[in-house]
Design a protein that fits this description.
The protein is built from nine helices and 20 strands. The protein is of the alpha+beta class. This is Peptidase S11 D-alanyl-D-alanine carboxypeptidase A N-terminal domain-containing protein.
């Protein structure tokens, strides 16, 4: 006496005959050969599943319409809430009613194509990413964490660190005057695509003013001016950036720019440096730089929550869209920093940080992303739930 089992192979149905030793032969059963009929249905406790392999599909209950191929959802967690036995011709099979987290895709799938448990966490768009426990320095999650790539204006995190380092030394202060009369810096301020902050001839800018311009508004000329104030020249400051990276034992960090602009843009303003075109830093090393900044100079997470600030009559707008009142804000995350970045070469980059109710802080980095705030939000949520951050 043979037992028969209905299975979906690829997009079609297969009737498999199995013997007592688990061996069987299969033959395709045309979809139109017989209608699917429900033998029994029951509600079940909600359980998480993910696909077991490359095969299978989600169908409507009558199996007249394929809703989705499981092949297209390699990192999706499906939540099952019903179980049904369906008959197709002489064969019967157990199916689960499943839906993804947003319930945008739902339907019935043969239970054998699913495996119990949530799918592994995944970021679809970021080419490199990391989540770092700011308290311990441990990596909680990573994607290409040690692969250096262009980081755009997130480079300013190192510039801010070195600026604050001098401010807190005996050689500088918040009220120190910064030279801003360079032709190149003035010209950059007049070009919104590379400057963002106009240096007015009659005004003497302080370190504190340019700190806010570079941090909140991501002003490139303000960052370069700060670097020159710190080290005496643009070239000396970039060498200082690299020296600091070496002192922290960052093996995947190389700087050629104080602002994050590439040399292909800086050259016309007289601020190109070195032979490489761009700063290239790995997600992990960038997170470590951010950790040093936050740990040594915690005021940056206070300033990081400022949505906008007027500096000498100019509005410096914080482009962190995870802040309160912004499109991607989520109260449970309590994001209070840190730095956005974009160039066509680097793509959208974001270094974020958030603190949990128990004061546990996470630092996240996403590089060359298409949905940097959505993916940062997902990464922060995943990191806070990870066992590494719950000890």
């Amino acid at each position: 006496m043979q037992s028969w089992q209905l299975k979906l192979v690829g997009y079609g149905a297969v009737l498999v005959a199995g013997g007592g030793f688990g061996l069987g032969l299969g033959r395709p059963l045309p979809a139109q050969a017989a209608a699917y009929r429900t033998v029994a249905t029951q509600k079940i406790a909600k359980h998480a599943y993910h696909r077991k392999g490359q095969h299978g599909a989600v169908y409507n209950r009558a199996h007249t319409k394929r809703v989705a191929s499981l092949r297209a959802y390699p990192h999706t967690t499906w939540y099952a809430t019903q179980k049904a036995t369906l008959r197709h011709g002489h064969a019967k099979g157990v199916y689960l009613y499943v839906a993804n987290a947003s319930r945008s895709v739902k339907g019935w799938v043969w239970h054998g194509y699913l495996k119990r448990g949530k799918a592994a966490f995944h970021l679809k768009y970021a080419k490199g990413a990391v989540a770092l426990d700011a308290n311990t320095g441990k990596v909680v999650w990573a994607k290409n964490a040690n692969h250096a790539r262009p980081i755009a204006s997130t480079s300013k995190i190192m510039t801010l660190y070195l600026t604050l380092k001098k401010v807190h030394s005996k050689s500088g202060s918040w009220h120190s005057i910064v030279k801003t009369n360079s032709r190149g810096l003035i010209a950059m301020g007049k070009n919104s695509s590379v400057g963002g902050f106009r240096f007015k001839a009659h005004h003497k800018y302080t370190v504190k003013e340019l700190y806010y311009a570079a941090y909140l508004d991501s002003s490139n000329n303000a960052a370069i001016a700060l670097g020159k104030w710190v080290a005496g020249s643009n070239a000396k400051f970039i060498r200082q950036m690299n020296a600091q990276a070496r002192a922290w034992h960052l093996g995947h960090a190389k700087y050629v720019s104080a602002s994050g602009l590439e040399n292909s843009d800086l050259r016309r303003y007289g601020y190109a440096y070195g032979t490489a075109n761009a700063n290239e830093v790995s997600p992990k090393d960038l997170a470590i730089v951010a950790r040093h900044l936050i740990t040594k100079y915690p005021r940056v997470v206070v300033d990081g929550k400022i949505g906008a600030k007027t500096v000498n009559g100019q509005l410096c707008y914080n482009y962190n869209n995870l802040l309160p009142g912004r499109k991607y804000y989520r109260a449970s995350l309590n994001v209070d920093g840190l730095k956005t970045g974009y160039t066509p070469l680097a793509g959208y980059c974001f270094v974020g940080t958030a603190v949990r109710h128990d004061k546990h802080r996470v630092i996240t980095v996403v590089l060359h992303d298409e949905n940097e705030f959505t993916e940062t939000r997902s990464l922060m949520t995943h990191a806070f739930a990870a066992k590494e951050m719950n000890y």
